[in-house]
Every structure is written in structure tokens, then in C-alpha cells.
Amino acid sequence: MASIRDRFHGAMAGVVVGDALGFPLEGGRTVPGRYLEETVPGLRRLDYSDDTALTLALAESLLQCDGFDGADMARRFAATWAHALDRGYGSNVAKVFRSVLAGVDWKEAAESQFGGAGSYGNGGAMRVTPVALWAYPDLEETARLAAETATVTHTHPVGVEGAVIQAVAVHYALSDEFQPARLLADLDERIETDGFRAKLGELESCLENGDDDQARRRLGNSVAADGSVMTAIYCFLVGSGFEETIRRALAMGGDTDTIAAMAGALAGARYGLAAIPSDWRRVEGFDQMATLGEMLYRRTDL
Ligand code: R7I
Ligand code: MG
Fold it and tell me: Under CATH, which number does the domain 4-69+122-298 receive?
């Protein structure tokens, strides 16, 4: 089994590998034949998208501020967005960043999204991996901090819960003796929104038959948190290694980069950095993400 240190590195690197391999496919319905075997090796660059850009910013904020500081995190997110606008950001989240840069209080900026409903997009979940590492091995701190970091842009209960579920799943994936049943039992106790409650039931039946087409239909492949977080968890739980998890996630279509980024975090946390194929390591930001994994590891007592 990979060491816990290697799994910290793997969780962070898994985000960027899934994200960068999925980015060219985002919104597509199917993966072109031999995508990983032929298309990817021929691509000159494999850039990361907003998923990794904000994961980096979130990790740096936690490390610099020694914990959650909403104003600092909001400023870093907004600066990251402004620095490279073409990384495929969600269509509405840019409004939050513009408001923050214009001096609006960070809480107000996020709360006013969608007429005050807040965003239920998967943006809070896609960037949450460093939270699980930061708080490890404290599970309840992981869940609490995940919710806090989500509210910097996503205040809708589904957007917040998506971040909590993904962080809790990374936490379980990091544990020495990972048992899927323990993760599912935890989620069964923890989930509060109707959307995720329904998806947890679907996840359990999808896991019984392992049919990816059915999983795509029943769990979703959209930018909504409750249309993608359980899909990533499904890919991780049915996949039997890092590579297989990513292949399944890429084949889900739709919000491919985010589903693969979340599934990659889980598979990286479980199988470690050493399990990531070497030709996938040339993605932009790979070393930076692995280094942040090391920095997050060093501040734990493990
Ligand atoms: O959640 P967010 O950061 O976007 C994440 C996804 C990832 O795949 C990224 O890689 C990127 O491609 O987008 O961005 P938001 O703009 O907050 O939410 C994404 C989308 O979800 C919005 O543009 C809306 O279409 C939808 N959405 C909502 N629609 C109606 N009412 C989110 N919340 C609402 C809502 O309350
Ligand atoms: Mg995406």
C-alpha cells in the first residue's frame, strides 16, 4: 500500500491529472476513440482548467493564513480568475469575482448569486481536496471547513453539501483501510439535501451493477453539484486503480474535467502518486500540486 505521504501527493496530483485530461473533452457527449492512447500524446499542451486553478488558490490560502480566512480566499480566487480568464470558469461565478475585486464584502458577493438562492454548481466541490488534507485526520473538521470554503462562492445548500461530500470522500480514501461501506454509511447520516439524498440511493444501486451508461443517466454529468459529485464517487468506487478511475470518469462526458478532477483526487488519495501513469504527469501544474500535497502533509502529525 502507498504511504500516507504518497497519498497526500496523489490526492493533489490526481485533481490536476483528471482536470487536464478532461478539459479538452468538456461538454462533449462521448470520448473520441483512443483519446488517451492517441489524442493525448499528440497534444502539445495539457492545460489545467478552473478546477485546478482554484484548488491551488484554496491550498495556498489555507497554508498562508493557517486556516480559513474568507476574505483572503475570496481575494485569491478573484485574482486567480483575473490572471487567466480563459480557464473555463462557470458562467456565473465570474460575477462573484468581479464583485470581490470591486470591493464588495465576500459573503455578500456569494450570497447574491442567482437572485439570492446562491449557486448549486460543483465549483465548491471541485476545489475542496486541500481541505481534507489540511484537516486530516479530523473528519468533522474536514466537513466543517469544506462547507466554509464552499460559501466563498457557493451558498446554495446543494453547492455547499457537494463540497462537504467530496471532502469527506477524500478523507475516507486517505484512510489506511479504506472501506466503501463506511463512506456510504457516513454519507447516509450526513446528507441533508433532497437532491443528494436521492443521488445516494441511485449511487448504491449503480454500484451493484457497475454499468457506466446507467450511472451517467442516473447520477448525472452536469455542472450541478448533485449532478456530478456522486458520479465521481461512483467512478472511484467501481474503478480498481488510478488509471481505470480516470478512464471511467472521462467516459462520463458532460462536465468531464470536473468529474475527472474529483474522481482523480479520490483515486490519488487511495492509490498514491506512484500509481499515476508517467505520461499523464506532463500536465500543467503537476509538480506544483504535488508540492502543495507535501506542504499539507508536513503540517500534520502523521
Ligand atoms: O459552480 P461553478 O464554479 O462552475 C463549475 C463548473 C465546473 O465544471 C467548472 O470547470 C466550470 O466549467 O463550471 O460556477 P457557477 O457559475 O456558480 O455554476 C455553474 C452553473 O450552474 C451556472 O452557470 C448555472 O447554469 C448553474 N446554476 C444555477 N442555475 C440556476 N439557479 C448554479 N446555481 C444555480 C441556481 O441557483
Ligand atoms: Mg468543469
Answer: 1.10.4080.10
Q: Give the domain ranges of the chain.
A: 4-69+122-298
The span from the CA of 54 to the CA of 89, in Å, is 10
The stretch 269-285 carries a mean pLDDT of: 97
CA-proximal residue: ligand 1, atom 26 (nearest) = 121
pTM of the predicted protein model: 0.98
Q: Does residue 51 line the site of ligand 1, with CB under 6 A? A: yes
Question: What element of type H or E holds 219?
Answer: helix 212-219
The mean per-residue pLDDT over the stretch 217-230 comes to: 98
Q: What is the distance of C-alpha 134 from the center of its chain?
A: 15
Q: 19 with 258: CB under 8 angstroms?
A: yes
76 vs 244: CA distance, rounded Å: 34
3-state secondary structure of 281: coil
Ligand 1 pocket member 285 (CB < 6 A): no
Separation of CA 73 and ligand 1 centre (Å): 19
Work out the pLDDT band at 108, boundaries 50, 70, 90. Answer: very high
pLDDT digits (tens, 9 = 90+) for 247-257: 999 999 999 99
